[in-house]
Amino acid sequence: MGMRTISPLSILPIGVLGLVFGLGACHPSTVQSSAAGSSALTAQVERGKLLYGEHCAKCHGDGGQGSSKAPPVVGKDAFPLQPRPGAKRDVTFRTAADVFAWATEHMPGDAPGTLATDEYLAIFAFDLTANGVKLTGALDGPMAQSIVLHP
Ligand code: HEC
């Protein structure tokens, strides 16, 4: 309550991603936070970046920009409220928890549901951060519920 600073997904599209990837081994200042959970968050985001690279990037692109195989998961076109034309998705993405629930069941596209819950959480902590969402602690279910992508 009131302790989280959450910016709408659409505010910072590609720029933040450039920072996250561009900084590479440097201190990830884009995820800095004054909250006690900041080091847990940093560790989660770093893990999520690796997991994203292993399990998601081949279809969604190294930077989440999408490809001929899959839609973007980073940037202004990521996570539209309504399914894209012709999509298999049949739910709306109102909150980050909606995206999370759908993706943990259906992703990776070639091996649905095969990751552990904490691995999906790490990937989404990374992905939301790349989209400019400021998390103030390690991402969990209630926090995902509180992140409204489409008010
Ligand atoms: C083999 C290719 C492939 C891999 C690997 C893959 N995806 Fe996907 N992903 C897709 C396709 C295709 C869609 C579009 C599904 C549809 O028709 O609704 C999709 C859709 C999504 C969506 C919803 C996007 C939207 O706009 O509706 C999310 C979120 C997502 N994937 C996350 C992930 C995550 C996280 C991983 C890694 C754990 C991952 N995907 C790995 C192919 C893939």
What does this structure look like?
The protein is mostly helical and 151 residues long. It has one domain (14-23, 34-146): Cytochrome Bc1 Complex, Chain D, domain 2 (Orthogonal Bundle), CATH 1.10.760. It is 42% helix and 0% strand. The chain has six helices and no strands. It has helices at 14-23, 38-55, 57-60, 96-106, 117-130, 141-146. The two termini are 17 Å apart. Residues 5-33 have low confidence and may be disordered. The structure holds heme C. Heme C binds next to helix 3 and helix 4.
Keywords:
Cytochrome Bc1 Complex, Chain D, domain 2; mainly alpha; globular; binds heme C; 151 residues
Write the layout of secondary structure elements.
Elements: H1 14-23, H2 38-55, H3 57-60, H4 96-106, H5 117-130, H6 141-146
Helix pairs in contact: 2-5, 4-5
The chain binds heme C (HEC).
Tally of domains: 1
**CATH class categorisation:** Mainly Alpha
Measured on Cα atoms, how large is the radius of gyration? 14 Å
Mean pLDDT: 84
Short description:
The chain is mainly alpha-helical. It has helices at residues 14-23, 38-55, 57-60, 96-106, 117-130, 141-146. It is 42% helix and 0% strand.
